[in-house]
Specification:
single chain; Nucleotidyltransferase, domain 5; 6-stranded mixed beta sheet; 6 domains; MutS, DNA mismatch repair protein, domain I
């Protein structure tokens, strides 16, 4: 249908829609947000709404559905969760003064990455990506907390997606010139929403050109969607440094830190999350993703946790206060986007009062100086306490917002309002006495204002001298108005309008005042979150079976009776069996052998999880632990993350091995589970041996290498620093019992047929397999590992990276600027190699 033939209202709607064509338009009409045409059809399906129609002009009908504006939050959340954008359209001029149709504009665009009105503690990241010939720079922002972080990875789809998933990004923002193939892969293989933004914020400054461009694009997009500049955002933090223990997406997934393939409740994050606030819960997740690498910081954290464990009164008192606090990070975000209400100010005041109490409670503890030294913002607390009522309504129309004495005219108007209610009560009594009608009522509704309602049976008693004017006839009653009621309604309406005008003015002034404190409020939120995290650490560390780890120099990783805390807590079939770990300067590579289902992967996860907990500052689940700080953890366990990338299991194994080999240092921890199983036996064994030799002799990092190639146990006698361990098994009459304990020594076979028996394969298959095994063992050649492959030629670690990048480009098609950029990048790699 031609737009010129539409009704004026729908013409306005279509003009807005044309400028916001990637979003569903919520068009405000009275007390409803309405959707039309294709938007209505889409929304009706997602939200399960009844699809109706409205005259579009002439004989045409426009499909239509709508939601009440006061309940729009839940509907918007459902649409955003389903991956849609929503454009909120409101009236922007007074209908009383408007000529023709009331002017409306988009006041906000809600997107999967910018919506923060959820009632949960989850962060919702949005990221911008900027790429060049070699690198992709990702700048990610959590709109609720205001934190912004940047990281640089290789400009490859797999690397980009792994970072986006690691940061739990819901939406990315790119220019229309961004690599379309990468965009298509992201759309096909993830649920991440892709948005395009051409303009950038010219005011953004940063020394790194790529970070500056990505950040400027992201800030501009946030300003576009929120229709204002967000003043609560922090400075960007560059993550390509060594300020924390680094783990990539594959490692976090393999170790089930944040999520678990069966249930989120089985993740380490869920297990340790004893926080009392949403701010603390988000901070705990960050602490889990970024464990510490500073011995001084860890010792301080132990002191803080010890204080909370020993001082029960302090611990309980802090918990009681935390339960009384609110998510002031979200309050600041709402304030920054003008979505706040009076109750947000009440919550902010209460939380600032909680913080002041926490400061007093922790004032004498030097280890909590970060709390004591902060500005408690007493002047802001006093201002809010003075101005805002405790029971302030969410909207001005619902009642009083400001305390008595704040504004003289406002007090007078409220007094008039109070007296007016008394007047109505008295007026109703007078009319009952006058008419003799005992069930006469004086009521109000928006359509008719104030009226007198008399039942059908009493209408005969209404006399002309009462001065009643019939207003409305109902089935069982008549409604009247009177001159006195009309005079009262005019006076009352004028008072209500003036009250609303004054409260709006006072509220805006207070909002501007509070906004000037945004950064400092946010800092207090950070401190409360950190205290909450420490309380959660204390709750975990005080559990039976947890002990304080000892941090030592060198390359020590020693755990006595170590357990995986999540498994120990959730295991129902049998008791968790603890195992020891002993790695040091003389033993840096452990070759772990044993049958499937015996607990090899669990053992490796136990080691990694306890290292992570230790470097978060927690106590660990064991009898004792000595640890030399780990700078990075690399894992290869399973292939769940690789099906997404469309790569074979074996290719992924080699890719993960390459990443560890090129990135790991002597202080890293490498956990490889069954590397080489995706190819033939001899290929796999040869590769596994070569990888073990290289890691052990060249990188010299602490490594646990589990394998079914039990021939590799011979490496213990060939390579200095290699030690065999195995899963203990009890065998009797061809039946095996898994003891789930890791002991010294290598396994001499894999027990595959025994495991098949446990899986209840038919007896005929089991018997035939035993016969086949005897024949194969008799016929196969005696495999001898080459003891000469002990010296490994050390290839410069930057060589493969530089070679790969050079071969990736056609020099004939490089512009001068691109050539200079590439040379600069290669020089940076070489300088990094020289500085190691």
């Amino acid at each position: 249908m031609s737009k010129s033939k539409l009704t004026p209202m729908l013409q306005q709607y279509m003009e807005i829609k044309e400028n916001t064509n990637d979003a569903l338009v919520f068009y405000r009409l009275g007390d409803f947000y309405e959707l039309f045409f294709e938007d209505a059809i889409t929304a009706s399906k997602v939200l399960d709404l009844v699809l109706t129609s409205r005259s579009a002009g002439g004989d045409e009908k426009a499909p239509m559905c709508g939601v009440p504006y006061h309940a729009a939050k839940s509907y918007i959340q459902k649409l955003v969760s389903a991956g849609y954008k929503v454009a909120i359209v409101e009236q922007v001029e007074d209908p009383k003064t408007a000529k023709g149709i009331v002017k409306r504009e988009v006041v906000e665009i809600v997107t999967p990455g910018t919506y923060f009105e959820m009632d949960d503690n989850e962060s919702r990241e949005i990221a911008s990506i900027e790429s060049d010939l070699v690198y992709a720079t990702i700048v990610s922002c959590d709109v609720v907390s205001g934190s912004i972080q940047a990281i640089r990875v290789m400009n490859e789809f797999v690397e980009i997606v792994k970072v986006l998933q690691q940061f739990q990004v819901h939406e990315i923002v790119v220019s229309s010139h961004f690599d379309p193939q990468t965009i298509q892969e992201i759309k096909n293989k993830t649920s991440i929403y892709v948005s395009y933004q051409e303009e950038i914020d010219d005011t953004v400054k940063h020394n790194d050109p790529s970070i500056k461009m990505a950040l400027a694009r992201l800030i501009q997009y946030l300003s576009y969607t929120h229709k204002r500049h967000l003043n609560h955002l922090d400075d960007v933090v560059v993550l390509n440094d060594q300020a924390y223990l680094r783990m990539d997406y594959a490692t976090m997934t393999n170790l089930e830190l944040i999520d678990h393939q069966n249930s989120q409740e089985l993740s380490l994050y869920h297990y340790i999350n004893k926080t009392k606030t949403n701010m603390g819960s988000r901070a705990l997740k960050q602490a889990l993703m970024k464990p510490l690498v500073s011995k001084e910081a860890l010792i301080l954290r132990h002191q803080q946790i010890d204080t909370l464990i020993v001082d029960y009164a302090l611990y309980d008192g802090i918990i009681a206060e935390l339960k009384e606090s609110y998510d002031i990070h979200r309050v600041v975000a709402r304030l920054s986007t003008d979505k706040h209400n009076a109750q947000d100010f009440v919550r902010l005041k209460k939380t600032l009062m909680v913080f002041e109490t926490l400061q007093n409670m922790l004032a004498s503890f030097e280890e909590f100086s970060f709390v004591r030294n902060a500005d408690p913002l007493l002047e802001l607390t006093h201002k809010l306490d003075t101005l805002i009522r405790e029971d302030a309504p969410v909207t001005f129309k619902e009642g009083r917002t400001f305390n008595d004495g704040v504004n003289k005219e406002l007090d007078e108007l409220f007094e008039l309002s109070r007296n007016g209610k008394n007047w109505l009560i008295n007026y109703e009594k007078e009319q009952r006495d006058l008419t003799g009608i005992k069930n006469l009522k004086v009521s109000y509704n928006r359509a008719f204002g104030y009226f007198i309602e008399i039942s059908k049976g009493q209408i005969a008693n209404v006399k002309d001298e009462f001065g009643y004017i019939r207003k409305q006839t109902l089935t069982n009653a008549e409604r009247y108005i009177s001159e006195e009621l009309q005079e009262y309604e005019v006076k009352s309406s004028q008072a209500s309008d003036r009250i609303l005008e004054l409260e709006t003015k006072l509220f805006n002034e207070l909002s501007d005042y509070v906004k000037s404190y945004s950064k400092r409020i946010h800092s207090i939120g950070d401190i409360i979150a950190n205290v909450d995290v420490l309380v959660a650490f204390a709750a975990l560390s005080s559990k039976p079976g947890f002990t304080k780890p000892e941090f030592v120099e060198g390359k020590v990783l020693e755990i006595k009776t170590g357990k995986h805390p999540v498994l120990e807590d959730t295991l129902t079939e049998h008791q968790y069996i603890a195992s020891d770990v002993d790695m040091n300067q003389d033993i840096k590579t452990l070759i772990l052998t044993g049958p499937n289902m015996g607990g090899k992967s669990t053992f490796m996860r136990m080691v990694a999880v306890n290292v992570i907990l230790a470097q978060m500052g927690c106590y660990v689940s064991c009898e004792s632990m000595k640890l030399s700080l780990v700078d990075q953890i690399f894992t290869r366990m399973g292939a769940s993350d690789d099906i997404l990338m469309g790569q074979s299991t074996f290719m992924v194994e080699m890719t993960e091995a390459q990443r560890a080999i090129t990135k790991a240092t002597e202080q890293s921890l490498i956990l490889f589970d069954e590397i080489g199983r995706g190819t033939s036996t001899y290929d796999g064994m040869a590769l596994a041996q070569a990888i073990i030799e290289y890691i052990n002799n060249v990188i010299k990092s602490r490594t646990i290498f589990s394998t079914h190639y039990h021939e590799l146990v011979a490496l213990e006698t060939m390579l200095e620093g290699v030690h065999n361990i195995s899963v203990e098994v009890h065998e009797e009459n061809d039946h095996v019992t898994f003891l789930y304990r890791v002991i010294d020594g290598g396994a001499d076979r894999s027990y595959g047929i025994n495991v098949a028996r446990l899986a209840h394969l038919p007896k005929t298959i089991i018997d035939r397999a035993k016969d086949n095994l005897k024949l194969l063992e008799l016929s196969k050649e005696n495999i001898q590992l080459d003891s000469k492959i002990i010296h490994v030629e050390v290839e410069p670690r930057a060589y493969s990276e530089i070679r790969e990048r050079l071969l990736k480009h056609d020099v004939n098609n490089l512009t001068p600027i691109e050539s200079l950029s590439l040379v600069s990048e290669l020089q940076a790699i070489l300088k990094g190699e020289e500085n190691e």
